[in-house]
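User: Could you walk me through two proteins back to back? I'd like the raw sequence and the C-alpha cells for each, with a short line separating them so I can tell where one ends and the next begins.

Assistant: Of course. Protein one, sequence then structure:
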Amino acid sequence: MLAFSLEQEPDAGAWLAGDTLLWRPEPARAAERICLVSELKLRGRHNIANVLAACAVSGAAGATAAAMREVAVTFAGVEHRLEPVRTLRGVTYYNDSIATSPERSMAALRAFDEPLVLLAGGRDKHLPWAEWATLVGERVRDCICFGEMAPLLLQALGPVAAGRGLRVHACSTLEQAVALAAQIARPGDVVLLSPGGTSFDAYVDFAARGEAFRQAVRALS
C-alpha cells in the first residue's frame, strides 16, 4: 500500500523529510527526490500534504518521480485558493476568497513567512474568532477589516492588537480595503485576501468576491 505523510517515512509512498518531498515506489527501494518545498508554487503545509497525496496516487498508477516533479513545481492551484494575482512594486497580492471561516483563514496565514497585510471581512457565520485573532496578532502587521462584520473583527482584535504592534483598520468595501492595502504595504510584503466570512454581505458567492479582488488589484497603478 502506498501512503503519504508530512511527519513519518512510509515503507512505500510519498513523504516530507525536512524541506524535501521524497518518493519510494516499493519497500526497500531507495528514496527518490521529487522536489524541494521552496520549488512548489502552492503555499501552505496543507498544500504540501495535497501534493504528497497526489504523488502517492499518481505513483500507484505508474508515474515516475520525474513526472511528479514536473507537475508539482508548475501547478499553481485553482482560482480563489491562495491564488497569486499580481506583484506590484515588490508587493504580492494573493486571493484566498474561498476562506469563509476563521479556520480556513488561519490555514492561509500559516502559509506565509513574509510580512502580511490581511484583508478580512464579509458576513459572520456565528463562529468563534478568538483563536483567529490570536494568530493574526502573531503573524499580521496590518489587518484591514471590511464589510458587514468589520465591527465584530475590530472587537475580536482589540485585546491582541495593542500588545503585539498589530495595526487594525476598517473599510466599508473590499475595493476600499485593496486601495488602503496598496498605500500601506511595503516591498517584500504580501497582501492577502483571506476573509474568514462569507461573501453574502456584498457578493453572490466567494468566486464573485475573488473576482472583485482581482479586478481591484489589477487596476492598481
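----
Protein two, same layout:
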Amino acid sequence: MEQIDIKQQIETMIADEHYRPLSLAQLQETLGLSTTEEFVAMNKAVNELAEQYVIVFSQKGNLMPARMGGYYQGALSVNRKGFGFLDLEDENSIHITEANLHGAMNGDVAIVKKLPSFYGSDEGEVIRVLQHKTNTLVGTFFTSVGKGLQLRLDDERIKSRLIVKNWQAFKMVSGTKVLLKVLRYGDPMELEIVQLLGHIDDPGVDILSVLLEYDIDPQFPQEVMEQAQRTPSRVSPKEKEGRRDCTGKMIITIDGEDSKDLDDAVCVEKIAGGYRLGVHIADVSHYVPENSPLDQEALKRGTSTYVVDRVVPMLPHLLSNGICSLNPKVLRLTLSCEMEISEAGEILNYEIFPSFIKTTERMTYTAVNAILEGEEEACRKYKKLTEMIGWMRDCSRAIRKRRHEAGAIDFETPEAKIILNEQNKIEEIQVHERKEAEMIIEDFMVTANECVARHMKWLEIPALYRVHEAPEPKKLRDFAKIVLLMGKRFKGSVEQIRPLQLQQLLDSFKDDPAYPVISTMMLRSMQKAKYDPRCLGHFGLALEEYTHFTSPIRRYPDLIVHRMLHKYGFGTALDPEMMKQDELKMEEYGKLTSERERAAIEAEREVEDMKKAEYMEDQIGKIAEGVISGVTKFGFFVELENTVEGLVHVQKLTDDYYHYDPDTLSLKGERTKKIYRLGQRVKIKVTGASKLHQEIDFDLVRPRKEKREPIPAAKKKAGPRKEPNRPAESVPIKNKRRRTRRRKPKPTQA
C-alpha cells in the first residue's frame, strides 16, 4: 500500500465520530499492514499528519484528532485593539490576547491551542502560522517632531515595530502614501517600499490605498495587456460555425446607465400556456484560453471590484467593454439558456447551447421602469419593445411567486449609492431603489443559473456550484432571541430549519420600522455563500441546484462553468482523464474564488464606510432620525435613512446611568427605567466624524419636555472614548468596518 493511501486512510479514520485514540501498533493492526515497508510508510504518514496538526499524540502516545487534543485550525480575526478570535462553526469562538497572537495578523491561517480558562470563555494561543494572508501593506509617512519621517500603517490592527529597508531610496514628504511588501513577519516586521501612491490629499489616493491593501490592483501585467491587444475586435464567419443563429430574435440588454460590461441579454416570447425565456450570456471563455496570461490573471483576481469612483475589472477593458460586451446591434458570441416557463412560473423545459446574437437595443433600468410605469415618452420611444417588456414583467412575477412559495428569502436591506463630484468628494448619499426592472433581471438570471446547475449535475461533469448551506443552529438560536425581543416567535426547530420558515418570519416584519435591522440580523445569522465543486444547494434561494453562469465578464466561476460546458456539455466526446484532472482543479478554484470574492466585498465596504465618514465630516451639527441598529455596553449604533451608521456613546446619555443587558440586547436606565433597544426610532445630532478611522459619532436629541437629570457623581465614569467595535456578547457585527451590505453592480449575487 502506498504512503498516500495510508495517509488518506488515517485521515478518514480519525474523522469518524466514533474514533477512539489508537497506539501505533493498534493503528498498524487496524489498517492491516504487515510488511516493514508498509510500517515505514505508515510512520512517515503519521509524522506528516502530526507536522500539519491534523493529528496529535495523547500523553500515552496514542493518535487522536487535533481537536480532541485542543488544537484548532482556521483564519484569525484580529481587531484594532490588538486581540483576536478564531471562529469555530460548532463551538464558541476562541479569544486570543495580543501577547498570545505571537505576531499573527488578521486573516492568517493558524494553529491555535486552547488554553485552560478560569473566566468561562475559551482562550487560546497561536502555535504556528500556516499561511500569511497579508503580503503587502499600505501606509503613510508623516513627520514626527524630533524623529523625522515615521511610517503609520493603514491597518491599525498591526502592532509590531516596523523596519523599512529602502525608505532612503525615495523622495517623500509628510503625507506620502506608499505600497509596501512584507519581507519578514513578526516583531519587528521588515518591509520594503514597492510603489509611491501619491499624497494622502490627492483625489483618488484614498480609494486606491484601500484597493491595494486587499491586493486588488487596477493595473494589469504587460503580458496580459499584450494578449488582450491580440484579441479580435469582431466576430469572424468561422467563429459562427457550430453555433445557433439567434440574430433574428428581439434581444435586449438591461443595465445601469453607467454600465459598460454588458454580459447578459434577454428576450421573452408569449407561447401557449406560458413564456419562452431566453437568457444569452457573453461567451467569454471563447476569448480567454485556459492557462493563458489572461486566464491566470482572471483567476488571481477572481472577480471585478466595484467601488464608488471606479471599477477594477477582472478582465482588461479591451475585452470586458469590447468583444465580450453585448453592445447594441453588433454581432457577439454567446452561450444561451432558453427556457419554457409556465403561467405559474415553473420551468417546463430548457435548452443550453452555443449561439451568436445581435442585440436589438441597449436598455437601462430607468427606461424599462418608465415603460412599465406607463410614461408616455418612454413608451413612444421604445414602442416596438413595450409588448415584450410587458411579457417580461408577467414572466418575472410568475417566477418570483413560484420562488416565494418555495421559500426563497428576499433580504431587502438598503444599499447606498454614493454620488461624487469631480474632486472625488461626496455630493450626496442616496438609497438605491430596487424597482421592477431590476427584479426582472434578477429573476431571469437566477432561473438561468438554476437550469445550468441542474444540467451540469445531470451530466455529471466537473463544475463549480454556488453553495449556500443551512444556517448553523447556534447562530439561529441567537437570532431567535433577537426576534423574541421584537415581539415575534421563531417557529420550528433550529436544527431542521427550512427557508420558508425564515421567509415567513421576515415577511411578518415588512411594515415594522425595525424591518431593515431584522433583515440584516437574519442575513448575519446565515452561512456565507461560497463556490464548491459539490452541489450542496442554495438555502437562501430554496434551490437544490444552483451555480453562477450569467456574469463571466466579472466572475471567474462563471467563466469556469462556460469552459466546462464547452468541454463536456455540447455533445463533445468525453475524455475521462481530462475530466478527472478538471475535477481536481475545481476544489482549488472554489477556494480561491471564494477568497477573492470576500476580499472584493471587504474592500467595497471599507471604501463605502470611509466615504460615508468623509461625507459626515461636513454634516456636523445636523439633526436626523434613524433606527437603533446595534446595542453594546458602550452605547448604541443608529442607522439613518441614507444608510449612514454612527455611535451614540453611553457617556453621552447623561440623564441616567445605563446598564447593558446582554439578554435583551438593550441599555436600561438605572433610575428612569428608560430602555434603548434594537429597532427603536430615535432622533440624533451629528457630533463627530473621522474619515481616517471610519468613525461617526452621534448625540441623542431628546424631546424638549423631557427633563435631563444628571448622573449622580458617585456613578460617573470618566475615561477615553472606547473603540466602537462590538464585543463578543453584543449584536454580532464583525467589526467597525462592517456596517453596511455590499453594494452590488447588478442584483445577481445570490
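The mean pLDDT is 89.

Let me know if you want the two compared in more detail.
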